[in-house]
Amino acid sequence: MTTPSSQSLPQMLLLPAILLVIFAAVAEQQQHPVPRPGCRDKCGDITIPFPFGIGNGCYRDGFEVICNDSFIPPRAFLADNRTINLERSFYDDRGYYQSSPPLELLSISVATSKVRAYAAVSYRCSLNMTGRTVSKGGEGKTFFMSQHINFGNSAFAVSAARNVLIGVGQIVEPVLVYGNGGSVPNLYCRTISERRYMQRYNPVKNGSCEGRGCCETTLLHPGKSLTVSVTEEDDEWWELYPCSYAMLVEKSWYSFFTPDMSGNKTLHQRFLRGVPLVLDFAAGNVSCPAEGQPPPPDYACISQNSSCADATVTPGYVCRCSGNYTGNPHIAHGCQDIDECKLPENPCSNGGICKNRPGGYDCPCKFGMKADGQGGTCTHVFPPAAMATVGGIGGILLMAIITFLIILHKEKKKTKEFYKKNGGPILEQANTIKLFTKGELKPILKNSNLIGKGCFGEVYKGLLDNEQVAIKKPINGSVQENDQFANEVIIQSQVIHKNIVRLIGCCLEVDAPMLVYEFISQGSLHDILHDNSKKVALNLDARLSIAAQSADGLAYMHSQANTRILHGDVKPANILLDDNFAPKISDFGISRLLAKDKEHTGSVIGDMNYMDPVYLQEGLLTEKSDVYSFGVVILELISSRRAIHSETNGVVKSFLEAHKKQKKATEFFDKEIAIPEDLELLDSLASMAVECLSLDVDQRPTMMEVAEQLHKLSRSRKVQDVCH
Ligand SMILES: *[C@@H]1O[C@H](CO)[C@@H](O)[C@H](O)[C@H]1NC(C)=O
Ligand SMILES: *[C@@H]1O[C@H](CO)[C@@H](O)[C@H](O)[C@H]1NC(C)=O
Ligand SMILES: *[C@@H]1O[C@H](CO)[C@@H](O)[C@H](O)[C@H]1NC(C)=O
Ligand SMILES: *[C@@H]1O[C@H](CO)[C@@H](O)[C@H](O)[C@H]1NC(C)=O
Ligand SMILES: *[C@@H]1O[C@H](CO)[C@@H](O)[C@H](O)[C@H]1NC(C)=O
Ligand SMILES: *[C@@H]1O[C@H](CO)[C@@H](O)[C@H](O)[C@H]1NC(C)=O
Ligand SMILES: *[C@@H]1O[C@H](CO)[C@@H](O)[C@H](O)[C@H]1NC(C)=O
Ligand SMILES: *[C@@H]1O[C@H](CO)[C@@H](O)[C@H](O)[C@H]1NC(C)=O
């Protein structure tokens, strides 16, 4: 978006322009201080608000967080159980009781006194029919894992309102046993075998957890000590459905997926780090002070304009900001006034002008209007026509200001709407991605920073948080399905590999969301091979290394456990090279989601020159489609020719024909690199390209195999060099 320069604005609009600056400053101040002053506020993407904290003096007793920076992004754990008496353990596959690693945090909210943490999935699997009847891991015929959670007298407890107990399997009874001395009844549900009662019941359905293959039940009581395990009956289908699962998990998080029922620990394998569990925490383990009574020692609700409320786990209290205030009640000046007038929903109706004040807001009538009665509708004192004549110059100026304020308000409202439409609330919860504001990106989005332009939009280069970034700004590809966009962003932000371009953040406050990536210096492989102005002579070793490392990146994408990630548009233009000519794969998933134009909706629009013909015919994009495209990339690397698609004499077609006839394709090799001693290696690369380009999808190697083969070739070369 371009802004009109201020000189061109009429003089009388300057005053509102000054107001604009003041508003911006106020908005800045609204960023609440969350950690203790001088303490780290983030661990990776997780915000760490006090009473939680990292390092000495930064946390309240029992809320220490350990940030392990050896992970990328860093991961946050609740500190060991010495101080907070937190215990989690589970039976392992052999039935032994084990103490588990510390609790890993997903997010922390002081406004609701809740944290989300990873919990394990309990399971029970049979190796054979008789195994089913044997309990507790007898002779290895059944193996199972039960989770035992005990928060002792720490501040934490499993939330009843925000979690559910879920069971998955043919016939399974997940059980939640409370360890509160039998005062709380156990909780269970039950799935019914579709096969056994086929006639009577509907078949299993994806997304429907109502008894067939999946059952779910709500918790009635919070718990400090509980065990989650699975029991099930004999079942003649143990071979097809060897495993049953039980999990205590955040409400609405798990969507039943029928393939989870079959196979060996399939569901467990999908969520190896665990599933999100919501915990309540109390700021202290006594009741709130009665009115007029002194606060208890070490009272936690210390901010002004904060208050105390009973915790769900008794005895205990939580801290809240008072009504019309928001922020962190656990630190001095943590609770700050909410500017109600900036909320998307204008609290003043009926012609009132919203005026914020600490702890509330007022709605006085506009100039020239008065309220008819208390808090009622504003009506004009004079008819509008009379006002115009009376008002004169002052009136015009006032009208201009009011008009400007209305425009400003509309602009703000639009920003908020876009933010919501583009999945802002979902991404906020995910916490794995940075959400930039329009204001943060604006200084970068100017012509002098423009480094690329394509049919999908523009790319700008700039500096954000001291890091070189590339910002992708789509021209008109607005997001249709915000959930899909948000989910893609979350998935991409978790794909972290040295040969894949890292997604740092996005800006949602615009119609078409902008994406912020790490900046890669040397441009694309396409430019370096084919663009005369950017061409760099690459020797065979460099090309081999680019191929091998790009294959690593793609193989990593394909091997992601939780979500199958396909690229869908592998080509030299999407392989970027850094200072050392190490490749990084770019532009998968969301970039194309955004570029989706009206004519191609529903289909993936990859580059025709690299597109798998089998995909074009059958319409099903698979890992093997990427392998095909990668075959074309190898061909370009050895030939330095641009792959132009054509039904009759395209490069790929003539290459395949030449190879078929002579078992070689020497004429295709780039003369610059085809020295006699390297012909053998080039032949190997050509054969690999031929395999990738096979029209029989099953004949194509996997990306992992391609990567291994390329590394092998690369290694054999290094050995040769040493010998020479
Ligand atoms: C971080 O995690 C690694 C790998 O699990 C572990 O070896 C290391 O001890 C951890 N560091 C800290 C400070 O906990
Ligand atoms: C946590 O508690 C368990 C059970 O009491 C104990 O076995 C384990 O050693 C404790 N871990 C730490 C780090 O204190
Ligand atoms: C399932 O996997 C476990 C190892 O995780 C293995 O011990 C067991 O034999 C497998 N069960 C079947 C039925 O293949
Ligand atoms: C299945 O059960 C039989 C009888 O108990 C046992 O001999 C056999 O080893 C079991 N098979 C496996 C794969 O555990
Ligand atoms: C409450 O907390 C204090 C300090 O954190 C601790 O000394 C005390 O044992 C706790 N009381 C109970 C009943 O858990
Ligand atoms: C559920 O979805 C998966 C993957 O899309 C599919 O393989 C499976 O057949 C579906 N289940 C049912 C019952 O339709
Ligand atoms: C907020 O706190 C300040 C300072 O203690 C106090 O003067 C003010 O009255 C409080 N506001 C409300 C609405 O209670
Ligand atoms: C918030 O502000 C509004 C408007 O001033 C007021 O009516 C309401 O009572 C306030 N809420 C609280 C909890 O103070």
TrEMBL record:
Key words, A-Z: ATP-binding, Disulfide bond, EGF-like domain, Glycoprotein, Kinase, Membrane, Nucleotide-binding, Repeat, Serine/threonine-protein kinase, Signal, Transferase, Transmembrane, Transmembrane helix
Domain Protein kinase: from-to ranges: 445-714
Lineage: superkingdom: Eukaryota
Major location (coarse): membrane
GO cellular component term of the entry, any: membrane
Gene Ontology MF: a single term: calcium ion binding
UniProt cross-references to SUPFAM superfamilies, sorted A to Z: EGF/Laminin, Protein kinase-like (PK-like)
Pfam families cross-referenced by the UniProt entry: EGF_CA (PF07645), GUB_WAK_bind (PF13947), PK_Tyr_Ser-Thr (PF07714)
Gene3D superfamilies in the cross-refs: Laminin, Phosphorylase Kinase, domain 1, Transferase(Phosphotransferase) domain 1
Domain EGF-like residue range list: 337-379
Membrane-spanning ranges: 385-408
Residues binding ATP, per UniProt: 473
Protein name per UniProt: Protein kinase domain-containing protein
Biological source species: Triticum aestivum (Wheat)
